[in-house]
Amino acid sequence: MHLRTALALILTAAVLAAGDAGAKSRTVTDPDAPRALPEQGPVSVRWQNPEQFTEIRNSRNRFEARRGNWVEQLAQYVRTRAQRQLPPGERLEVDITDIKRAGDFEPWHGPQFDDTRFVRDIYPPKIALSFKRLDASGQVIEEGQRNLRDMSFLMGPRVVSDSDPLRYEKRLIDDWLYGEFKSTDERRSAAR
After folding, report:
1. What SS3 string covers the chain?
2. What is the C-alpha separation between 116 and 125, in angstroms, rounded?
3. What is the pLDDT of residue 11?
4. How many CB atoms lie within 10 A of CB 161?
5. pLDDT band for position 170 (50/70/90)?
6. Which of 12, 50, 115, 146 has a CA-to-CA distance to 188 between 20 and 30 Å?
7. Is the pLDDT of residue 54 over 90?
8. For the domain 28-191, what is the CATH code?
9. Per-residue pLDDT for 14 more than 80?
């Protein structure tokens, strides 16, 4: 009886290990990776060709730069934060066209640091995007392109989560949304 149980456990472990060995980790450039968030709510976020993003094209370690789903995480952050600031009835469509994350890889430190991102002031975060803001009837209220960049990102106020690897990019998004919606609110107040 114990032999059958042990054999069953060994076979189960072998099947699970075989499944894990065949699975590859996802990268932002995988052809089957999403290029937009699922339609939901008043904010839609899309992106095309992340392999052309500065983060990957100019990286000193393209393998590490591609790893994970950081583009999708930033898109989700845009959606979540924009939904809080968007007036009722309005819609926002955002196309992320380029991302360069804060920091970079410095291969001259040796192979033990190949996968280490060094965050220094010479590697600021940058995000390029275009957007359309629509009213309840679908008329365009505002549209444009923005190049978000923070050259003093290491000198600003500390963010809530110092362990979030995307904290500097998220602060760029917060600053953009605050400025975009504040200016619209100010224009509306002045028109009254």
Report:
1. CHHHHHHHHHHHHHHHHHHHHHCCCCECCCCCCCCECCCCCCEEEEECCHHHCHHHHCCCCHHHHHECCHHHHHHHHHHHHHHHHCCCCCEEEEEEEEEECCCEECHHHCHHHCCCEECCCCCCCEEEEEEEEECCCCCEEEEEEEEEECCCCCCCCCCCCCCCCCHHHHHHHHHHHHHHHHHHHHHHHHHC
2. 16
3. 52
4. 10
5. very high
6. 146
7. yes
8. 3.30.160
9. no
| Per-residue pLDDT, 158 | 65
The pLDDT value given to residue 185: 54
Return the structure tokens found at 50: 């992340």
Overall average pLDDT of the 22-49 stretch: 88
Compute the C-alpha angle 157/160/164, nearest 5°.
110
